[in-house]
Every structure is written in structure tokens, then in C-alpha cells.
Amino acid sequence: MKILICNDDGIESKGLKALAERLSLNNEVLIIAPDGNRSACSHSLTVRDSVKIEEYLEIKGCRAYKTTGFPADCVKIARHIFSEFVPDIVLSGINKGHNLGSDIHYSGTVAIAYEAAFFGFPSFAFSAFSHGESDFTLFAEYAEKIITELTPFTQKNQIWNVNFPDIGVKIKGVKFTTLGLKVYIDNYALEEDGKYRLIGTVDENTEFSDCDVEWIKRGYITITPLKYDKSDYETLKKLGEKCITL
């Protein structure tokens, strides 16, 4: 199987290296990743500047390249500049830090999966809950198992958002679940140079609901199938044949 792997943490990410080295044992892997951290840049694209692409030789068993572009750029670069490599699936991650619930709208990791879907490729976005240390080698093994199990149920533009629990938490199993809502207590702090920095913490004072945000705290790997169609079909149905007169 041909696999394209991208991320938003950058080419030197431990999560990317672990995932690529694991999957390259039995697959042909191409890596295109940013040359530095591009977290929380969502679906940004480089349209006002040019992008630089350089070969990266530090990951065994696969071809790897770093770019000055954004995460979503990486998928476009793979398709247009490395067009001879047609992936069977596209993988994103393993990200350092969760991508749960409403956070996916800020996520460069999930944006890679959406960009892959635009091209008609099934994709998996993998994230680890901890922003500190994580056992990426173990999570890469789990990722391989998840890919193997879900591939028969995966359509050509299917997106799977997968999150692994925090380090030290005993993994109880896997939950297929919906997206939840991540609520933050945040603000902007004034720094000495006169600039403002966004700071905040997650609001944990929320009741349990059957969603990824809650199940991962209980020790489950969460998997949420996503679509890029955000149309509000319920409202469209209510509107029916309503016409607005101009």
C-alpha cells in the first residue's frame, strides 16, 4: 500500500517519525511535512508566497521532504509535485496534543485529512492527548491496527479523527463517537514588549456527554468519522421552497 504522511508539528516530530517508521515496514511511504511547527493554523494555504521543498534524510525506510508551507500545502505538494506517487491513504500525525471536539476547526492535523478528502483519498488524523511526553511507538502500533480494521469500511474520501488518551492512562478500549465541545477559559495577556499572547485552560466543569471529549478522559481511544460537508440540512429542509424577494 502507498501511504502519504503529513503533519503540523513539523518534520522533526517524534510522532511523525514513529508513525512513518512503523508503517514503512510493510508499505511504501512518502512524507511531506512543514520545516517547523505549524500547530493551530487550521486549513491555511500558502498563496502569497512561494514554498521551498528540501529532502529530509533522518527518517528510515521512506522518502521524506520538508517544506516552508502549511500542513494543507503538504498534501497539495504531494499531489502536484510528487504526482507519480498516488497514495492509497493519507495519514496525519501523530500530533502532539489532542484534536477533540470543536478543536478540530483550529487543527492543522485535521486540515490535512480534509485536504486529502478533497482529492478523493481516505485519510486518518492521529493525535495524542498529552502535550508533554507520549509513547508514540505504542500509538503507532495502535494506529496501524486501526487502519487495518477500518480500511474495509473506508470510502475514497472518508476522514477518521483518532485521539489517543493521555500518557499513564490505562487504555480501556476504543469508542466510535461524535465530536464534543471543548470549552476554554481564556484571555489575552499583555507582555513586556506591548504584544498580547492568548492564554487559557480547558473548562473541566462540564457534565458528561457521549462524545470524544468525555470518552478520552475515561481511558478510551476515540474515533470519529468526519465529512467536509458542513451544510445545515435540517434548516434547508425547514426552508423548503421559501423564496426571498429582493
Question: How would you describe what is shown here?
Answer:
The model has no long low-confidence stretch (mean pLDDT 92). The protein has a single domain, classed as 3-Layer(aba) Sandwich (Stationary-phase Survival Protein Sure Homolog, Chain: A), CATH 3.40.1210. It has a nine-stranded mixed beta sheet, with helices on both faces. It is α/β, with parallel strands linked by helices. 23% of the residues lie in helices and 26% in strands. Helix 1 (14-23) crosses helix 4 (136-150) and helix 2 (71-80) packs parallel to helix 3. The protein has helices at residues 14-23, 71-80, 108-118, 136-150, 212-215, 233-239, and strands at 2-6, 28-34, 53-55, 63-67, 89-96, 123-128, 159-164, 173-176, 184-190, 196-202, 220-226. The protein contains six helices and eleven strands.
The arrangement of helices and strands along the chain is EHEEEHEHEHEEEEHEH
Query: Radius of gyration in whole Å, from Cα?
Result: 19 Å
How many domains is the backbone divided into? 1
Amount of helix: 10-25%
**N→C terminal distance:** 54 Å
Strand order of the largest sheet: 3-4-2-1-5-6-7-11-8
Q: What assembly state would you assign to the polypeptide chains in this entry?
A: single chain
Within CATH, the superfamily carries the name Survival protein SurE-like phosphatase/nucleotidase
Query: Can you give the mean pLDDT?
Result: 92
- How does the major sheet shape up? 9 strands, mixed
Query: What is the structural class?
Result: alpha/beta
Content of β-strand: 25-35%
Q: Give the low-pLDDT segments.
A: none
CATH-defined topology: Stationary-phase Survival Protein Sure Homolog, Chain: A
How many helical elements? Answer: 6
Strand tally: 11
Using the 3D structure, state the CATH architecture.
3-Layer(aba) Sandwich
Instruction: Give the CATH class.
Output: Alpha Beta
Shape: globular
